[in-house]
Amino acid sequence: MVELRRARSRGVEVLSKCFNYSELNQDWKAISWQSNDAVFPLVVLDGMIYWYGMPASKMAPPTEDGLPATTLETPIRITGFNTANMVWTLAKLDQRKSDEAAQSLQEKHGSTGPNDDGKAAYGLAGYVKEHEKCPKCHGYMTMARNKRGTHYLRCLRCGNVEYLTKQTVNHYMSVKYVRCPTCGSTMSACRGRFGVFVMCDKNSRHTFGPDQI
User: Which residues of the chain are modeled with pLDDT < 50?
Assistant: First the structure.
């Protein structure tokens, strides 16, 4: 943890997600998010070096005699762009899932208190969960992403699905004063082949997904 703090002080981005957030100590809770898809014990350095089996895995599939077996006692080091890219894609290391909502994995700085469960949504996903209601049952909506990468809204109460609209995204950026992460300019929501995305008003090459703002 000391080394991670030093790395952050040098400007290194440190991202962390886990499946059993409640079991972490306070230091790790301060930088980690609960994520329902964090089932692989992986440490990734610079997107090029992967350690599989770290931290120590608790995955224990039953053996033939019905007793659990400890797995991955020896970490495996994986290198190489193609292999690393395949692992990154299959394990979806760039996102986190909580309460069926999917959003881009971002840095976390500090917990919200003793009752923090690491599930809190941030950015547009947090805004949707707080403000958007289902037109059928009036339950709160969450932002999700399908296999094509298209973002949509889903009601956890009745399962109703709605489009994520440009109006919702633009209103969020307006009330929260969201600016382009690259150059600091204003941004506008656009609709493309795979749904809504966000484009910088100053530089059209600065584009972002709804889960990145």
Answer: 70
Name 142's bridge partners.
Answer: 154
For residue 90, give Cα distances in angstroms to 84, 107, 142, 212.
10, 21, 23, 20
Residues 10-40 pLDDT 10s: 878 888 888 888 888 888 888 888 888 887 7
What mean pLDDT is reported for the chain? 81
Q: Rounded CA gap, 185 and 192, in Å?
A: 21
The answer to whether 151 and 162 are in contact (CB under 8 A) is no
Q: Does residue 99 contact residue 142 with C-beta atoms inside 8 Å? A: yes
Pairing of strands 141-145, 151-155: antiparallel
Quote the pLDDT of residue 78: 86
